Structures are given as C-alpha cells and as structure tokens.
Amino acid sequence: MSLFGEKFKSGTAPGKGTYKCTRCGKIVVLETDEDLLPTCPKCGNENYHRK
C-alpha cells in the first residue's frame, strides 16, 4: 500500500466518489456505485487513488 492508500484500476467499479490518476493527477468522478473507472482521459494510465 502506498502513502495515498489503495490503488484502483480502470475497468473496475470501486464505488461512487472522486479518483485521482496516479500518473498525471487527472480527477475522475464516479456518480454511482455501478460506474466503471475509465482509462485516464488525459494520459491513458489505468491506475487511480481515491481522493
């Protein structure tokens, strides 16, 4: 586990909330618990931290 907590991968449904790309810092907001994390729209990374 990193200093920022658990990592979440694109294509998963980690739950409603705000996620930050581990590479470029782009913020992605999931509106429902069923929403899937996308590949980062800015840099193409697949990993996020919950913000």
Which SSEs are present, and which pair or pack?
Layout: E1 7-9, E2 17-21, E3 27-30, E4 47-50
Antiparallel strand pairs: 1-4, 2-3, 2-4
3D shape = globular
Share of residues in strands: 25-35%
- The tally of domains stands at 1
Structural class: mainly beta
Q: What is the H/E order?
A: EEEE
Low-confidence stretches are none
Question: What are the salient characteristics of this protein?
Answer:
51 residues, four-stranded antiparallel sheet
Plain-language structure description:
The structure is a single chain. The protein has one domain (7-50). The protein is globular. The chain is 0% helix and 31% strand. The protein is mainly beta and 51 residues long. Strands 1-4-2-3 form a four-stranded antiparallel beta sheet, with no helix packed on it.
Task: Please sum up the structure shown.
The chain has 51 residues and is mainly beta.
